[in-house]
Write a structure and sequence with these properties.
The protein has 4 helices and no strands. The chain is mostly helical.
Length: 139
């Protein structure tokens, strides 16, 4: 049995990660289903075509990230660290896939991001990982 403060902290951190994944869900749905290429729909590549099937993949990545974060929260609550780690990896892969779909060079320009964006990235990725690690702690 996990000590109550550690258990509470792990569930709280998983919940914070789930809330942060709501941003990925919102971004995936907004860009994948409605904005698409917006005003730049002339040119080469799928990002410049409103009818490209990849936009549905963008929406799917947002949904997958959010769903995997919800599964992580559930598995941390149920103290299933291996399944929680798998859910974390799926959520993180979906998040990075979504970010790369929307902005292929996002990793090259981290210095241009606002403090709020970097804080969201840090909390949204490290908090759930700490929750997974804490959920495996036994008394």
């Amino acid at each position: 049995m996990v000590a109550p403060p550690t258990r509470f902290l792990s569930i709280f951190l998983a919940f914070v990660g789930w809330v942060c994944s709501g941003v990925a869900l919102l971004a995936g749905l907004v860009w994948g289903l409605s904005l698409r290429c917006d005003e730049s729909c002339d040119g080469r590549g799928w990002r410049r075509s409103a009818d490209a099937w990849q936009w549905n993949g963008v929406a799917l990545l947002g949904v997958l990230s959010f769903t995997a974060a919800a599964a992580l929260l559930f598995f941390v609550w149920r103290q299933r660290p291996v399944l929680a780690l798998v859910a974390y990896i799926v959520a993180l892969a979906a998040l990075f896939g979504l970010a790369s779909s929307l902005s292929p060079d996002w990793t090259q320009h981290l210095d241009r991001r606002s403090g709020g964006e970097l804080l969201l990235l840090l909390v949204g990725t490290s908090g759930p990982l700490i929750a997974v690690l804490l959920s495996s702690a036994r008394r």
